[in-house]
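Issue 218. Parser rejects a valid record. Input:
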Amino acid sequence: MLSITGVSIEGQTTQNINIMFVNEVDNNLANVAVEVALNYVKKNPQLGLSVDMVYVEGNRTDSKDLLQALCSKYSQSLNNNRPPHLILDTTLTGVSSETVKSFSLALGIPTVSASFGQEGDLRQWRDLSPTKRGYLLQVMPPADMIPQAIRSIIIYMNITNAAILYDNTFVMDHKYKALLQNIPTRHVITSIAEERERSGQIEKLRNLDINNFFVLGSLTSIKQVLESARNEYFERNFAWHVITQEQKDLACNVENATIMFLRPMSDSSSKDRLGSIRTTYNLKQEPQITAFFYFDLILRALIATKNILQSGSWPSNMKFITCEDYDGTNTPNHTIDLKTALIEVTEPTTFGSFEIPKGKAPFNGNAYMKFSMDINAVTIRSGASVNTRNLGTWEASLNAPISVNNEADIKNLTADVVYRVYTVVQAPFIMRDPSAPKGFKGYCIDLLNKIAEIVEFDYEIREVEDGKFGNMNENGEWNGIVRKLIDKQADIGLGSMSVMAERETVIDFTVPYYDLVGISIMMQLPSTPSSLFKFLTVLETNVWLCILAAYFFTSFLMWVFDRYSPYSYQNNREKYKNDDEKREFNIKECLWFCMTSLTPQGGGEAPKNLSGRLVAATWWLFGFIIIASYTANLAAFLTVSRLDTPVESLDDLSKQYKILYAPLNGSSAMTYFQRMADIEAKFYEIWKEMSLNDSLTAVERSKLAVWDYPVSDKYTKMWQAMLEAGLPNSLDEAVQRIRNSTSASGFAFLGDATDIRYQVLTNCDLQMVGEEFSRKPYAIAVQQGSPLKDQFNNAILMLLNRRELEKLKEQWWKNDEVQNKCEKPDDQSDGISIQNIGGVFIVIFVGIGMACITLLFEFWYYKYRNNDKVVDVAESKDQRHTVMKNVAHPVVKLIKQDSPKDASKRQTLRTRSMMPSLSKFQPRF
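Output the parser choked on:
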């Protein structure tokens, strides 16, 4: 039985209270706060309190020792007839807290607890009866309320991902599910790692596609975390929010960062009392908010207990049982309204007032100390805080929103939506361009920019280190972009990436943004050698020499026949004097006749003698045959080069051994040929197993008897040839191998048709051969389960409806500025090129040049080598009359005397028609 006694001091009644103070190891703030509270009671006799305290300390992980200590101390108190009126429980969480609550619940001892957690987290006090709710009370400490600020910030700023790091000054075990419950925010809650692992911890969180970091802890812990992060993690696509119980300023050694900083502020109405307690009672421990919370809670619990005792509401015949007496059903039933008494305490608070639910509202999990936290934006440059702006406040509550001074200021602290894009450079989809905003340009960059306008995000783009889109090895491990997406190091895989079944098992693809693309063949464009005198190569040199010899021989023979035949013109001038054509076949005329006979113009008048005509007819027949043969052979000669196409399809490539061929190492084309070869090998093993199966009957075995292997091994041979040829590691290397190939050992590249088409578009020495095969679509890759898939799908479909993708294709495949203006090869042109027929024009110019030279020679020879010279005379004014007398005809004949010795030799001068006016007649030479 409990006897209630009081001591009168100078007219005041002092109430004796027995308490059992239960704390856990390392919670020194609670120990100090209890000592200060007891000292405060002693120094303030007007409170009318006298406290006798029993102290019990336990380990958070050892319930057995703690329970034994509780039962031992409790039994001693009962034996000393000083049973505890109240248990003050400052255990935080874990089995120590649960042990204390089980102990007080089982023995029916009034308890005021400062443990962490809401009502559902207090497992031992979940289903209390109404009477037990009156004396088993829990008030949440500030460290349990402060994390709720994270919930308010995330809701206000609409944050979609978050990493919450905390140190040992906070307990977050019970917050893993409850803190962000019913909020669509992907988050991770974890304790701050040790110093050696801290950088790696932040790196792993970033690889989980988290760019919003919340750090709960002391200023020392916050400083260590911030200094462990790389400088790039403080850029605009990251946001840092640090929350502490301390009231000092934030300081850390980072290069350039703007951080949201939350710290508690004491109630302005309680500042005087706070200062007095700090100086008078030496309560200077940090964090102040927790120390003064314990002080105020313990003091109010003592006063509330005293008030109940003094009011007579405390049961006079209160029953107590020991731990040994408890059998699980004999808990004493008390009617102590400690809750109401705690509410009615009028003692002023030191840091902040208490929010205690009234009426029928649950007390446990809803009672806490009210306080506010300042929200500041701290700008740090080169390790020093250069600016601090107040953004607003947050009032401690389970669901209270933050109060913001200026909405624009806090928006600047949000992490921009910046996705990490990994790509492979492959023109024209992705090309490096230092002048471009992101350092790259191409079809896919334009596509991503258009999607970003719809979905509203920014991105940073990098080239994957190994230059691969992603292939799986024999161990099931991936490389390239697929590896980055699996490891959460990339948000988007961009480029000419084929949709493949095995890739879709580990990543997701959007709807295709490009038509089905297959594998094609790229080879060197055969260069037909051109020659200005290609028309001369139709006939061999010895044939040309024979034709030339026949020409001169026939001309000479015709001259001989015309000179000695009695029926020729020169030997029968009188007979043919009335003929219009009086052609004398001298050497010059014979050469001219044979030459012109080979032309459509014809040779002109034939010889008069029969023998000469037989020679001419023979020459005509010879010329007809030669010209016809030359024309036919010229057409055939020009056609032969056009028909020289050794490879026109994949089958042609597989059936020859002269031209080497291979796809890119690690490409989808390589995977295709490798798998086709593996399938053929498996088919062969199946057929061989069937053929050698001893369990088959003779009839069944006969059905499998064939001379040849029934399944093609084309791809097996091709794959072996590819391995022997060596797979190029890049497209540039493949193009270089094509260009270095010769007619004796060519090289063909097997790759995506779009890449080959672009290479042909930009290089005049390459050609695309054959039809496409193994066609697959191109799509954008994202992480498996990423919400970007649906967002990008909608954006791509919108672009398709607007025909934007067709415009991009037009831009990068038809109107590309790097497109080469290639000349048509002979096999694609409309006729013979000037390079092959230009020699004919040279012949014309040479002939004209020779004619000019001949004219000059004739002029020189006639003027200076002929003894008798031809002159034209024009009379002067004083001789005009004499000349007119001597003119008997329109033609003037003048005889020039040479010398007296040659007077007998005269020559008639060539006449010239008289001009209408002799006065204008001028000498010609």
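Fixed in the parser; the record now loads. Residues 1-11, 869-925 have pLDDT under 50 and may be disordered.
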